[in-house]
Amino acid sequence: MSLQQARAFAPASVGNVAVGFDLLGHSLEGAGDTAIVRRIDEPTVRIAAIRGLDIALPMQAERNTAGRALLSLREALALPYGFELELDKGIALGSGMGGSAASSVAALIAANALLDAPLSREALYPFALDGEQVASGGRHGDNLGPMLLGGLVLASADRIVKLRVPSEWHCALVHPDQVLETRRAREALAGSYELRQFVAQSTNLALVLAGCERGDAALVRAGLSDVLVEPRRAPLIPGFAAVKQAALDAGAMGASISGAGPSVFAWFETRAQAEAAVTPMQAGFSAAGVRSEAWVSRVDGPRAELIEGDAP
Question: How far from 17 is each of 112, 116, 240, 302, CA to CA, in Å?
Fold first, then answer.
């Protein structure tokens, strides 16, 4: 007999990774969302509870990222049964840490364990994209892919590809006590761009991908710089310039905005370097009058997993 209830945890993530807008991301140890999903007789999806936030999220499944993802799963598989969902939020909204994506991925991993024939991680991706569209208005998988597969992932419109990255490379992420909604951050990108900017960004992306594949920090250091998005979003984040400079002064291979912001991430060649950079990075936000919290994680971070039961 199939499981009737499952619980799953999806980690936070660093979206874009500076040079891969909407298509490159990596998972982050520490923070994350938890979903409890129950299989119910009614052919519907209902949300029983959302905990961990001071503000209310939509309880209607079609308006909630996790609910929409489960609705898509049900519809695509023509399931004769439905799901009841509870969410425990461990990622702040508007943080640039993939909070909406984590909810939908955790819900899908839990629901997948309740299927008579569980799907592959890659097969869950389209349903996660449907959920992400509710939150941001776009079907981009730079947060979803890393949560599903773990580590550094290239996420296109129809596939996710896990990339190799040295196990000793670490990320320091600092999250300021402020909210920057994804939709507002995307509005800041309106307007024209010059061809030379696209060429420069493409060059940087190629350098980073090649550096990760080869384990060559010098290539990553040469390319981990956002010339398209960061200049337009940085003014939305008080203290950003000081935080980024503190990371670079501490030896970072590069530093930029995580996802839509306001969190700031930096890559380092060792965990010790990343840990040492946290205090000066937080000092950059403090100088702007903003409190912050920080995480240090392997770039090759964890993937979403069941907390109870057997992983499919």
Answer: 29, 37, 16, 16
